[in-house]
Predict the 3D structure of the following.
Amino acid sequence: MLAYIIRRLFYAIPILIGVNLLTFILFFVVNSPDDMAVSQLGQKYVTPEAVEAWKRKNGYDVPLFFNAEAPGSEALTETIFFSKSVKLFAFDFGRSESGRDITTDVSTRMWPSLAVALPTFVVGIWVNICVALMVVMFHATRLDRWTVFVFVGLMSISYLFYIIGGQYLVAKTWKLVPISGFSEIEPWKFLLLPVLVGVIAGIGAGARWYRTLFLEEANQDYVRTARAKGASEIRILFRHILPNALIPILTGVVVVIPQLFMGGLLIESFFGIPGLGSYMLDAINAQDFAIVRSMVFIGSILYIIGLILTDISYTWADPRLRLN
Amino acid sequence: MKPLLLWSDILIYLLVFALCAFFWRLRHDPQTREHWRQVFGTRMGMVTITVILVYVGIALLDSLHFRRALEPVEGSPHGEVFYSNKVTSVLDVMLGGMGERFERTYSAPFALNSFEKQDAKNEQGQTYRDFPLLEHAGRHLAQPEERWSDVLDKSFQGLFWGLMLSALLIGLQWIFLRRSSYPWGASWATQGIVICLAVWLVSISRYYHVLGTDLGGADVAYQSIKGVRTGVLLGTLSTLIMLPIAITLGVSAGYFKGWVDDAVQYLYTTLSSIPGILLIAASVLLFQVYIDLNPDSFSIGLEKADARFLALCFILGVTSWSSLCRLIRAETLKISQLGYVQAAHAFGVSHQRILARHILPNVTHIILITFVLDFSALVLAEAVLSYIGVGIDPSMASWGNMINGARSELSREPVVWWTLTGAFFFMFVLVLAANLFSDLVRDAFDPRSSTRRSPA
Amino acid sequence: MTTTSAPVMQVRDLRVEVIESGDQILKGVSLELRAGEIFALVGESGSGKSVTSLAAMRLLPSALRITAGEVRVGDDDLFELSEADMQTVRGERVAMIFQNAMSALNPVQTVGDQVAETLRLHTPLKGAALRQRVVQLFAEVGIQDAAARCAFYPHQLSGGQQQRVMIAMALACEPDILIADEPTTSLDVTIQAQVLALIRGLTRSRQLAVLLITHDMGVVRHTADEVAVMYRGEIIERAPVEEFFRNPQQAYSRRLIAALPDLTHFHESRSDQALLQLDDVKVHFPIRKGVLQRVVDYTRAVDGVSLSIGRGETYALVGESGSGKSTLGRAILNLEPVAAGQISFMGQPIQTLSRRAMLPYRKKIQVIFQNPYSSMNPRLTVAQVISEGMDSLGMGLSTAQRDERIAALLRRVQLGDEFSARFPHELSGGQLQRIAIARALAVEPQLIICDEPTSALDVSIRAEVLDLLRELQREFGVSYLFITHDLSIVPSLAHTVGVMQAGKLVEQGSAEKILTRPQHPYTQALLKSVPRVESV
């Protein structure tokens, strides 16, 4: 098992290098430092001197990959690639275009993100499983067909509608919670609505997917065996179908757990939560490539951790794999 | 007038042509026909495909662009014609100038007055503040109180002509299709509703703003209909760009295995490890920078917007192939182990021939299912991307831009709800139809779901 | 044997239909089960034998519906009970075991827990007493080291042990009636015999009334007391087992019995000229371990096999699943790399030839696969399937000649010309296998590798396909390498027999020698478990 995890970690290295190269090409080759200078300086006609000054100030006045003028190993280190991309591997994210320290920003902003995303995730799964179980109990009746229709309907509604509708109804009309914002004191007041919206928006797709998983298990041979034993339908559902279906459900969601730190772009910006999601959105709007680049890298690392966790959870949850 | 071909227009017509050719070729394959029969044998299938085709039809009509010739100006050289800078589409003509009736700013559905007070002068030259009358709504009324009875009256007229038109169109279909075994009745009912609604909308729009107007005073119903083209094109073009990448890589990975497989797996793991929205946002921003730095390449505003739109389709396509690729790779791996591929090897059939004859035709069901599923996902994604500011160019009509422009207005008192409603409603109907249709397609084409239904 | 005791379970005039189409699946089935006796319900796939048992227990899939009949257990009519009462009947009074125990057991529950569940449902047993009872049951059904095995998950047990767990689960509450639905079908022959012996023993010792559902006449012959033959939803013949085999009344029953092997007549080997020669052939699959995935060892799928097949001769390669016999077949076709040894065809080594250089030999060596449904591309017509080899191997035929040849081949495998435009999914398994034969014959091969070509077919169809293969051999002088797990079809076909176990050829020789005077203990065990009907 340990050897397996180590091997997976080794596999992660070329992927991260790939991510790094890809973002580098996107940000510095397609969009050259000169272009960046022009758009950052924000004037129609920029003098070449101003461009040079901007590049020098922000460290873009060196070659992209290879610095022939620098002595020794600095030929490689005194380059944009090294200073802007390779340092990401050491979690040195540098400064944003506006001069803020990205590492500090990230470490303070990830907690509010987690505070919204984690409850949404946990409650969401729980609610979806419960709803799906209820539907499965009425399988092959008219009720079942209608709920599936309703699920598809819920899926077809834009996420933006859930957010706007939730804010309008719960916060504005009923005045139960503040419309948006965040504070360390009584954070639950601000978290309630985003979590609620997140959970409801996920029911359509989630419950529908789990229903399919449950039904797939309900057609397995061992369910017939349980019936032949004289077990009741409720017992079959909870003792036989549920534990088997939980394996794909749980292992399927493990991959997103690390990414909960990243938060949700829309939820955070609508509800004014100072998390990483709104951080990213602000960066995109301000065209702050340093932050976008760092977030891409963090996101990739979290995804790869998620993949590894998925593999581990498989072997842990399924006795067929655990004991082989 | 002078026809104008946007790149996206050309592409969408090419796509429609390609799809028709594809289905024309497939029509002999008995299994495929059997599956389609299962899809269209249900009322749900007929209703959803009708709705989808209506949207596609609107999008196609809206993709025939031209520039109107301007009235010859006094003193200009004889015979020289100038063309309007504004691009019109066939759809605009059919909507009877709905898009040309601008107000100053917000107005509620069927309102006669503007939503905001404005300074005006009365006959005595005194300035006062009031809700001014709208330019294009209810001007024909003698008394404002007659409004609702007039609306009702006009509605009945609209409905009457709608019913006549649908009777004509459906009657024609009935003559040819009455012996068909498919549930055409469901489709006809949908067609009838759509035709009546359309006729009603076009006719009454000449007197009122059915869904009000937005901040810039544009008719919301018109904006919502113009959003159809954007949504439909984005959904299809992105998938079209994604398909060849996913198919080529997926099939070769699953068939050749070894280092090809390793390389493809590396590629898609790397790509999917980057948070999708960031990758898209970054790419779009970069393209925007390119457009801004090269303003000369695009002669008119719409062409610029169209270029950005195509870039968005391209970026969405290039960033979203990994999941389909994974599915195709797995299916190809499975098929390569089957008897008929083994038998082909034993007959010394070449790799190309095995791929073309045995592998590709047997993964088409996955491609089809993904195509329909991704379509609705992309339509929904457009709204989110536009909201983030990396979607459709703000000058182009799209549901995302409408929502983005209107969301802050919910905090007004009274609420401006109609822009959101229009955009969400048109989007919801399309996505719901596509989702329901994709469910049917999957049930029919996915071998797993068909075994699930048959008795043990 | 005469039966005197009163029936403990009676099924009367049971009728079942498909809800959607209204097709009749069961058309009035009646039978009685008596204590201490095994009642065998025999039939081929689709005859309705499994539906009978599921309907009797009200466990039909939702697409089917019972339309008439009654099932009496003691004084109760099962069709009149409430669902809650029915649950007390299932498992407590009537128990069931199913085929393929691996999938019939819950994969994420220990086998001990699964047996305990039956006891929990129907008895007040708890805690240590419950555990003890489970261990006792495991011991009774012959599971070694019963106490430890309780904590195992199904996948950790072998197929035979899994089926024993199923039996323990069924017997836990001491039911009066046991319904066994193809209990041994997916098991290897040697295990199959043991499980049947266990069921037979328990029937006598516990005075069970058993309904045994099977397609295998050999199983019936050795296990049952009374037989009923099912055909298209009806019982067409019913008799005590001795009488049935001595004097079957229906033509269909006679066909089923005739499909049993005759171990007295053999084919003589005639050829002395080797067509295919294998010398110490090895096929290895690497096993990788550790952080760097280095190859630490090899699975020796085929581990040094030498054999030779003469012209116009059939070599039967017999072995249980996983013995490496199919891998060997693939290696001969050059679809699997050979680690060591030599494969020569007409004296020419072929195991190292490139894809291109192999082409001339592809014409000479052809193959028929086990699963007829997956061996043809569902999107091609029968004509396209058959012509594939002719096209790719460049037979130099004009379109008209090719079509004529396809028609001739179809007629030769006893299908009409009209089949050429059909698609595989419209055809039955037997028809598909005939087309697979036609496809192989199309390129005029000298050797056909038949990889279990009949194991997916019903017995009566199986006999027809084997007859066809034999005729074609006489007509075209083609050789067969016949890969099979079923010794019973060997005597009607093979000249030479090789027995494979764990990648090695443990014994080979003429069919007569192997089947009448086996030397190796494994061959003897295989042979002992072959069901046979002593000729009358």
In short: The mean pLDDT of chain A is 84. Residues 20 and 205 of chain A are 33 Å apart (CA to CA).
